[in-house]
Amino acid sequence: MPAEVPAETPAPVPAPETASYDSANVIATAWVAGTDGDGAVCRAGMDFAAADLGWLAEGSAVDVIGDTVGEWQPVGCAGVAAFIHASFIAWEPPATVDASSDDNETTDPATTDPATVDASDDDVTTETATTDAVPVEATPRNNRERGNGESDAVDSSDDLDSSDDGAGNDGGGGGSGQDVADFAMQFEGYPYVYAGEGPYAFDCSGLTMFVIQNTLGKSITHDMFVQYDMGQQVDRSELQPGDLVFFQNTFRPGMSHNGIYIGGGQMIHAENESTGVKVSDINSDYYSSRWYGAVRFS
Fold first, then answer.
1. In this structure, is residue 113 part of a structural domain?
2. Which letter does DSSP use for residue 190 in this model?
3. Is 257 a catalytic residue?
4. What is the pLDDT of residues 161-218, one digit of tens each?
5. Which of 26, 119, 211, 292 could form a disulfide with 246 if both were Cys (CB 3.0 to 4.6 A apart)?
6. Which of 113, 185, 195 is closest to 147 using CA atoms?
7. Catalytic residue among 42, 77, 204, 222
8. Same domain, yes or no, for 204 and 80?
């Protein structure tokens, strides 16, 4: 799941909480993306603490009513002027994944490097993004019903050659925490794709699932909450490479993001569509203030 990346922003300029917007002022159409299916909160001002004016579902079209200001995008939300964090705005319709067959995979050409996709028995295709959008009025889901996309996830059945770093990916188990960290590091720079389970794109809990499965041979599901419940909880002061680290209040209240600890206060994680899989400092102001917990599987 994506984390909201902190950035320097201008002093909050609240929008009138009841101000409607004129459709004649709409300058473009954008789409809500990178929320891991949870949707984006509409704010009354350019601040995460600003009043909540509504919610827009993942993939829904949204009226853009002004130029991006810092890290915030002015939009129309439930009939009023509001702001959405710009990391959750896409300027192209979202690509769709056809889950009708285990042998068919649809990838977004904007986020998947064609050169890395090997021909196999599975049919790998690209298709034009759909213009159908999830209704804006849809009801936000409970944290445990946030839609982790297991049924329409990017297929992770293809193997990767990990011989260069000594980390096996046959799911046979027996790896150590360092094996987990080393294996995960080969995916630095890979794209973030909602519901991605590898091997060519990931979301946050898709990356952790794929890495644990292919190093320790354990099936921990794509569900972040199940992953946390299945592992052995460890204190932050006792972190070791390969531990899964969890964070809260990133783009919604409660547990909302996770990654893999690699040592030295660093983690590798699938952050969002803008940054992809990257290494971050868990002791930074942003992540340290949103710490939730950690678990160990090795």
1. no
2. P
3. yes
4. 333 333 334 444 567 999 999 999 999 999 999 889 999 999 999 999 999 999 999 9
5. 292
6. 195
7. 204
8. no
